[in-house]
Each structure stands twice: as C-alpha cells, then as structure tokens.
Design goal:
single chain; 138 residues; globular; binds inosine-5'-diphosphate; alpha+beta; 17% strand; Alpha-Beta Plaits; 4 strands; binds magnesium ion
Length: 138
C-alpha cells in the first residue's frame, strides 16, 4: 500500500487547524500510520528543501518552517500521494480553488498550511528522513 509524508506547517499549527486538515485526509479514506511533533532545524530543512535551497526565498521559508513545532505525519492508502496533493491544491494559496485545503486555509505561496510528498521516490526519501522504520506502523 502506498504511503506519503505530510507536514502540518507552522501556520496550520498556529491557527489550530491540525484536526481540520487531518479530518480531510481521513475522510478521503487514508490512515495515519506515523506521527511526530517536531521543531525543524536548519540542517533538516536544507535537506528537505534541497530542490529550492538556492532560491532567494529559501532563508525566509526556512525561518517560517522552523518557527514553531510542526506535526509530521505518514498517511497510507491507495493512491495517497497524488490524492493528498489534489486535496491540498496548488502551492500558491491565493491561486488554490476554494474547497482545497490551501484554498480554504492558506495565506500565500509560502505560508500554505501543509507539505506533501510529490512522488513515490520523494515519499520514500521523506519518510526515512523524518521517521525510524519502527515508528511507522504500516
Ligand atoms: P509544494 O509544497 O507545493 O510541493 P514546492 O515547489 O516543493 O511546492 O516548494 C516547497 C515550499 O516552498 C512551498 O510549499 C512553499 O512553502 C515554498 N515556496 C515555493 N515556491 C515559493 C515562492 O515562489 N516563494 C516563496 N515560497 C515558496
Ligand atoms: Mg514540493
């Protein structure tokens, strides 16, 4: 069964929307198989965001992502990687349709409620980055 990694970002935690966001994933039929509250440090963020670490917005993004504890979760289910991305909507919250998580709760292109893995390869790498094998109940 497919698995994906999500991170409920600092804006989600600050707005106390963790339950509302997880509810959407659970109502879509996905199971929580790992969860951990973490405050992400600079080294972990550089690794997690390696694909954009050279962008001018990266320092501000890293500061935002490390600004308070976030909830890191592994979800499991049929087609979970693509379906969770669809439920999130596009990166830019101001362009995300109403009814998507980012469209309903996000602020802008950076402050956008939730991270989700974008492919089977990144899901596998991201799950390993944040969890030990015995912490994933799948
Ligand atoms: P994704 O989260 O939709 O997969 P990515 O392109 O992987 O989007 O970017 C990772 C994160 O970096 C985004 O979720 C957002 O928080 C931030 N980000 C992406 N593009 C921009 C930008 O142009 N300006 C500011 N922040 C950005
Ligand atoms: Mg991404």
């Amino acid at each position: 069964m497919e698995k994906t990694l999500i991170i409920l970002k600092p804006d989600c935690m600050e707005k106390r929307l963790a339950g509302a966001v997880l509810d959407r994933f659970q109502k879509a039929g996905f199971d929580i198989v790992a969860a951990k509250l973490m405050q992400l440090n600079a080294e972990l963020l550089r690794e997690h965001y390696a694909h954009i670490a050279d962008k001018p917005f990266f320092p501000a993004l890293a500061e935002f992502m490390g600004s308070r504890p976030v909830l890191v979760v592994v979800l499991r289910g049929e087609g979970v990687i693509a379906k969770v991305r669809e439920l999130l909507g596009p990166t830019d919250s101001t362009k995300a349709p109403k009814g998507t998580i980012r469209g309903d709760y996000g602020t802008d292109v950076s402050v956008n409620i939730c991270h989700a893995s974008d492919s089977p390869e990144s899901a596998a790498a991201e799950i390993q980055r944040f969890f030990r094998a015995e912490e994933v109940f799948a």
